[in-house]
Amino acid sequence: MEGQVLLTAEDVRLSFGEEGKKRVDVLRGVDLTLKRGEIVGLVGPSGSGKTSLMMVLSGLEKVSGGRIDVDGCDIASLDEDELTLFRRRHVGIVFQHFHLMANMTAHENVALPLGLLKDEHAWEKASEMLDTVGLGNRLDHYPRELSGGEQQRVAVARAFVGSSKLVFADEPTGNLDEETGHRVRDLIFSQAEEKGTSVLLISHDKDLALSCTRCVTLKEGKLKDMGDD
Amino acid sequence: MINFLIFRLAFWELRGRLQGMGIFVLCVALGVMAVVSVGSMSDSFFQTLSRDGKVLLGGDASLQKRGGPFGEDVRPWLEGEGVEVSSMLAMRSMMVKEDRSIQQLVVLHLVDDMYPLYGDVELEEGEWEDVFSEGEGGLDGIAVARELALKWDIEKGDKLWFGRKLFEVRGIVVSEPDRNLRFGFFGPRVTMMTGSLEGTGLVEVGSLVRYCYRLRLGAGANLEDFSRRLSEKFPNPDWDLRTSENVDPNVENSVELVTEFMTLVALTIMLIGGVGIGNAGRAFLGGRLSLIAILKCLGATRREVFWVCFLLLLWMSFLGSVLGSVLGVLLPYVVLPILGGLLPIEVSPMISWSSVILGWGLGFLVMLIFVWISLSLATKEHVGRLFRQNDGLVVWKSWLEADLYAKLGTFFSFCGLTLVVVWGLDHRDLMLSFLVGVVIVYLLFYVLGRCLMGFLRKIPRLKDFFMNLALSSLYRPGNMTVAVLMSLGIGLTVLVSIAMVQGSVLQTVRDLEGSDVPSFFLVDVQEGQRERLESLLDVGGIADDKRREALFSPILRARIVSMGGVDVEDIEVPPDYNWVLEGDRALTWDDTPDLRDDNRLLKGEWWDEGYEGELLVSFDHGAAEAFGLGLGDSLGVRVLGRVFEAKIANLRGVRWESLSMNFLMVFPESSFRGAPFGYLSSVYLPEGELTLFEKRVVEEMPNVTPLRLDGFVEQFRRIFEGIALGVLVMGWFAILTGVVVLGGVMLANHEARVGQAIIYKVVGMTRKEFVRQTLWEFGLVGFVGSLGSMVMGSVSSYLVVTFVMNLDWRWSPEVALYTSLCGLGVTLCIGIVHMWYVQGRSVGLLLRNE
């Protein structure tokens, strides 16, 4: 399976605002392919459209033009509910600001995607996953009772616990200190390797991006391989 | 001490961010508006009575009596005091058109040439003096009320029979000074000169006639001095004195009663608003935790931070009070003209400053009760924690974690509220019971919420994942379970309570309609008319199987002058039994009474047939209990000018609401032998024969006054439904406040819930699943709230109906059903609005703005 293309983005465009002066073209025809099990680092200056690209690739934002094929499915043509179901089955996301459910325990947060998949063993699998990320003793803790690093590990566990073939990690270490950041990065890499998951890792940190299988740069709404610079 | 910088900091904060203030201000405003508007309407009524008392009464004072004219010494004494006296009579009579085509029972209002002492009589055309001048045909003139003229198409020049005499209509009355508050009878009025009564045959011995002197005191005379001198000169009068400062106690009592109920509901609205103030205050402070943290970082003490926050809340409370006062003051100007037709007098709206002050005071105290805890929680937290957990949850922690000063502050604020309510409003006992009741209901809903959360926490995980999510969201941190139950539950409880009280009273009325209520009471039947009256029962031969009977009881009019040897002047009259001492009551005598369900012997023995001995009396048990009378106690009654002392021989349980012929006092047959008396008759007839019977009675016995009861029950129902509607509207207003409060609860949690909804979306929850989960969540809490309200509302209505109204309480399943649906409907609607709003937010935009 490794080496097969999982995601293909062709001429993806994203614009905000009306036609004319106020219109902002965030993505101006991005082409990207992601193979199964591949970890691709995405770097670029602030405002270059990294998060926007993650949003459209994960189906959180509708593209203005172009085509995104994930495992044979053109997600640009899906409606809101179909996109949601697509995310449920295929996508995990790790945010810079964690975005855990503040009123759910770590255990509940991780069990959530499994519950949506109607997995009968959701709670057991969530426990195991939290064990794997080193938080087996914090199952009943609420996010506010966890440190930033711990919260991000819960977010990583939530992203990898289901049947996701594709995980997007948007500045996963941006809010963490260097050491904690490295632990989270290692966790993502080890989970991706273990599960054969493709990862698009967005970061300001070139070192982090360079530790990925491949690294691409987004500049002025267009994507280039690092080697092109 | 607070310093100027604190004011400045609060001002800067207000200038910058008004977000989150709306619900807080609205909740204060609703409570203040309710209190101010009810107070203003009540004060407007009493102010109008006080200002226009002379015109409404028709004099500075009025003496009213039944059963015979005033003593011969009364008028000369009054005139000797420099008082101008206008003599009047009132009685019921049948008005018949000259060609006998119209018959209508009216109130005959007989006046002298002094009438009116105050104000003017306005006629459609012509002058008042011309009405009674000698006419061309030699007929006496009369003036007819406009509503009567419009109803029967009566015009000037028409001729009408009263008894055996024909009159000519010379005026159509548009307004009269004493039109609304009449003495004696209600109904359309025909005015004639007292002298014109001669030849009508309307007044016989024992006729139901009310006599009245309207008085105008001399210049500079003092009403209080005059009343004192009058009671000194006539120590045991057989009349009622009313003054322009006390125009109609019955109407005043009724208005007071309605005001009382409305005040209770207004207080409920204020307290429900309090929950909203509490929630909105928490949300407001929760949104300013970063401000608190920054101030603390910069070296502000906790006390200074507290004052900045308190000033912010105080400012919002001030805005709410201003808004509420303005609306509360304006409301009577809108409502009173609309209610005009339902009120006994035309009420001029006024601004009641005392109500405004009361509203502000209550609003301030309620605000204090509900914000102390959140102020404490918001300001006690360490800076680090405030920065680290900027989710606002700090202020939603349990009240147990607040400082002692905040708990004491809450307690003393509640004590202050209790003092203001108990001493600032009438009916202290009732107000105190109400406050205790509200606190109990609040506590019960709090406990219910906690129990529900505890129960949900304990139940094992369900198979249905979405149901699990819905149930667990009811006990997770930041849940709204208790807040929703408390804000919606208390309003629903009030509504259930009002509706069930209304249902019980209306059921009593319906029972009356279905029971054996007489068709007529005939007043003033003379001995020689009994036989003829019985023959009139066979009027049309319709429905021969129906009851057709006339029962007669001899009556004399009597006034109670002493109880247990104590003069009635010195007796404190129980509020529900003022009718016992007010004016004359009919007494009867009977050695072999017909003791029935509605007239049962409860204590003592009935005297033997043919009893001759010490004067005995059988008295109403309820009245005896109220006045503290028992068997063997004495009762002084004045009959035909003479005072008799009777010993209470037995007590009867009389069910007055049965409308059967019953008496307060029954004497042995030997008691008033030789006295001139009349009969009170209760007549039972099939429904289709009533009008014909009434017509024949009026034609043949002009002195007899028929009182038709078929319309009475209906009229009672209409009046009650009117009052109930007013209170019910206030009840719905309480629900509306609950909805606003709920809206506030939603808003307070809004950002957190939007955040949750977005994460749900990110991890793959579809809209349908989100809707299902939210509906389960809101539906369950709505259902529990409705159930709690149903139980608590039923219990409180049982207490009111059984112990305050002394009626049979009935549980209304339809009220229970409507309430459940209402509670569910409101919570689901709020849930749906919430979903609609949340679903409309762009996930990408929100995540990007993080």
Please render the helix and strand layout as text.
The complex is a heterodimer of chains A (229) and B (850).
Chain A: E1 5-16, E2 24-35, E3 39-43, H1 50-57, E4 65-70, E5 73-74, H2 80-90, E6 91-94, H3 106-116, H4 122-132, H5 148-160, E7 166-170, H6 178-195, E8 198-202, H7 206-210, E9 214-219, E10 222-225
Parallel strand pairs in A: 3-8, 3-9, 6-7, 7-8
Antiparallel strand pairs in A: 1-2, 1-4, 4-5, 9-10
Helix pairs in contact in A: 3-4, 3-5, 4-5, 5-6
Chain B: H1 4-16, H2 21-51, H3 53-57, E1 61-66, H4 74-80, E2 84-97, E3 103-111, E4 122-123, H5 128-131, E5 140-145, H6 146-152, E6 159-162, E7 165-175, E8 189-193, E9 209-216, H7 223-233, E10 240-243, H8 249-286, H9 289-297, H10 302-339, H11 353-380, H12 383-388, H13 404-424, H14 428-458, H15 465-472, H16 481-514, E11 520-525, H17 530-536, E12 549-563, E13 566-567, H18 578-581, E14 585-589, E15 599-604, E16 616-620, H19 621-627, E17 634-639, E18 642-654, E19 665-667, E20 678-684, H20 690-700, E21 705-708, H21 710-748, H22 750-762, H23 767-804, H24 813-839, H25 843-849
Parallel strand pairs in B: 3-8, 5-7, 14-19, 16-18
Antiparallel strand pairs in B: 1-9, 1-10, 2-3, 2-6, 2-9, 4-7, 5-8, 6-7, 11-20, 11-21, 12-13, 12-14, 12-17, 12-20, 15-18, 16-19, 17-18
Helix pairs in contact in B: 1-10, 2-8, 2-10, 2-11, 2-21, 8-11, 8-16, 8-21, 10-11, 11-13, 13-14, 14-16, 14-23, 15-23, 16-21, 16-23, 16-24, 21-24, 23-24
